Amino acid sequence: MYIFDTIMNRMRRGCMTMAYPKGQAPALPDRHGGALRLDASVCPDGCAECLDICPTKAISREAGGATLLDLGRCLFCGDCVQACPHGAITRTNDHRLAVRRREDLILGRPGEEELRLAAALDKKMKSLLGRSLRLRQVSAGGCGACEADINVLGTIGWDLGRFGIQYAASPRHADGVLITGPVTKGMELALQKTWEAVPEPRIAIALGACAISGGPFVGHAQHNGGADPIIPIDLYIPGCPPHPLTILDGFLRLLDRLPKHNL
Question: What is the pTM for the complete model shown?
């Protein structure tokens, strides 16, 4: 009797997994704001309102006067948006943030007001990993926020496994590593050994501001400023922490699994 009730309850609830990416993406929370856009053309000389308020020095000014915004350092706190009297920095409410190159996260140079989103792996790597990707997650000094959003993708609403993406218990069974945290000095060797244990060909993904640049710990002597100085990175997913939708978009973009209307 109890088994029959359970089956009937499941049938009444129906499928709980979201339709994305085939359907419309779920809306981001109001306080998230998505990616930022920088229109450096409206920044007057001498204005330093946003430079002074940024907690991670993600906003800087080149010798020639151009204002730059490094989304790899950005915590997306929104203080710069509120502080800028000229509206140069705005929220886009766009969840798409993943890029392939570190320099693509730096906005403000001519033609680089918005992100150059990640391209897919090359044909050979895509043929190997496009339908089945197993990642060994390495928390290299993270606070737990990025790790929590990684775990969210495994819940019934997101069901990461339907894309053939899973987390591996051993690097020897993985196709790559997924790194969170600023890579503290105590975790440097552990990350190196984990990377070396993954059989080639392999990929590495830096997830969150800490893994990309050190995040709120930028400049601290007890970390490596992210994973880049330790291993080569194939995908950068910024945020503090990145929204689960941002993480999923990055994974699918890398594997060329997104429908054209989501590109």
Answer: 0.92
